[in-house]
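tool=predict chain=A
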Amino acid sequence: MKYCSSDVYQHEMPGGQYTNLKFQAASLGLGDSWGKVQQSYAAANRALGDIVKVTPSSKVVGDLAQFMVQNDLDEHSLVEKADTLSFPASVVEFMQGYIGQPSFGFPEPLRTKILKGRPTIEGRPGASMPPMELDNLEARLVDRYGRQNITQRDVLSAALYPKVFEEYQAHVLRYSDLIEKLPTRAFLVPLKEDEEVEIELSKGVSTHIKLKAAGELQDSGKREVYFEANGVPRVVEVIDKRSMEALGKKAIREKADIGVLGSVGAPMAGTVIEVSVKAGQAVHAGQQLAVLSAMKMETAVCAPIAGVVTQVAVVKQDNLDAGDLIVFVDAAAPAAPPLTSIDNDPLEVGSDSDASRPGTPDNGAAAAAVQPESVVAKR
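tool=predict ok
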């Protein structure tokens, strides 16, 4: 935005979120629909009860706004169809009370339709959290990553943002922590031929990287990339993911049939990070089928009806467009018995999700309050 705009009086989007959300929308294929995203932001805010929009509550509104644009919803059809939709995780957790209680209460019947029986937190989430043993957490992190790689800041990062910290450490183990030294533009945008960047490794120590050329795409989906490091010619083989998608490996996916309730499609574009069911498995309405992730926004895709899974059309790490088929549930088949709680809910005491959260005590409610926007742990 290169000029002043009075649109802020309509959408009430925080200034710090504006540019981030615009970049996120473009990454999700909504760049040409930015005007609709702004309008939907206002509609999402009204649907949620006109909440205070600061991190992380502003992310809830932004995620819901993009979800509404992807699924062609307004604030009225959102409520009407809510019991059959799979909402972004941030929206579900907001309704569960993970980030506190809105001053005017939660909107009904939207909340009930979104939660589908999930447990909720009453009052301030932190008040019901058991103490966390930071010394024990530090010991586990040291055993896993090594004493030299764990600082007090890392311990706090793992306690507050366990999943983000694990992703960060996996990234460091794969690419080293020197990736932080790259200039921002070189990290986000590929270099052009003969473009050179200077990377300061430490005070007074720099290296110069110059891209020379990229080889032909191989059948394996890899290319040889030629570059110079401080004037010395080098070559490395990399996977060209963009070219693989351009060759049509992504475009041939089967689409969900919007006229059939059991044909469950992707609510928005994203990457499959978890597949929770198998063909032949009985499921109940509201049970998690898969989890998608896109630009820090996770969405648990749930069964709209009870029945038996007859087709699972995705595997982990598949890239999907909105509407791509994920699972087909046959409602005519015998349904799964009703459960007292939703599978794998972090609030469920003794659930599997407790064990996946570093430093979380046995009571799964300890994880309930830490669901804000991802904040990358820095060393």
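The radius of gyration is 23 Å. The first helix runs from residue 8 to 11.
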